[in-house]
Every structure is written in structure tokens, then in C-alpha cells.
Amino acid sequence: MSRLRVLICRVDDEKHPDQMTELYHFDLPDVDPEQLHPETALDEMEDGVLTIG
Fold first, then answer.
1. Residue 6, φ and ψ in degrees, nearest 5
2. Residue 23 has pLDDT above 90, yes or no
3. Tell me, what's the pLDDT at 1?
4. What does DSSP assign to residue 33?
5. Which of 13, 15, 46, 16 is nearest to 31 (CA)?
6. Which residues of 1-38 are buried (b: 16+ CB within 10 A; e: fewer)?
7. DSSP character for 12?
8. Please, are residues 4 and 45 in contact by the beta-carbon 8 Å criterion?
9. Over 70: is that where the pLDDT of 40 sits?
10. Is 50 left (phi over 0), alpha (psi -120 to 50) or beta?
11. Where are the domains of the chain?
12. What pLDDT, on the 0 to 100 scale, is given for residue 44?
């Protein structure tokens, strides 16, 4: 089963932007992509995370 995960990473060297240090991550609750609107998708998913806690 797939899921969405948000990663907060630090890029230590701008010459190697693909090399990162993960600082924090969290999984988003299950979402139905058909119900999301591109303009507000991140806000809607954030609201779901805040509601769940």
C-alpha cells in the first residue's frame, strides 16, 4: 500500500543538492486524490493532519 510522507531535510552542500540530512518526517492521512483540487491540495491535507493530531 502506498502513502504520502512529508520530509523536512537540510541540504548541506548546494553543489550536491541531492545529498540531504533528514530532520523530520510525518505521514499524511489517507486521501482520495479525486477529491483534491490542485490549488488547495496542500492546505486540505494539512487540515486533515491538524484535525487528526
1. -100, 130
2. yes
3. 67
4. G
5. 46
6. eeeeeeeeeeeeeeeeeeeeeeeeeeeeeeeeeeeeee
7. S
8. yes
9. yes
10. alpha
11. 5-52
12. 81
- Mean pLDDT, rounded, for 20-27: 92
The answer to whether 44 and 33 have CB atoms below 8 angstroms apart is no
* Cβ contact 45:52 at 8 Å: no
pTM, entire model = 0.50
pLDDT confidence of residue 36: 81
CA angle 8, 12, 18 (to 5 degrees): 70
Residue 28 dihedral angles phi and psi, to the nearest 5°: -85, 150
Quickly tell me which residue has 537540510 as its cell.
10
Q: How far is CA 33 from the centre of its chain?
A: 14
Cβ–Cβ under 8 Å, residues 30 and 22? no
Q: By percentage, how much of the chain surpasses pLDDT 70? A: 94
In angstroms, rounded to a whole number, what is the distance separating the alpha carbons of residues 48 and 4?
A: 13
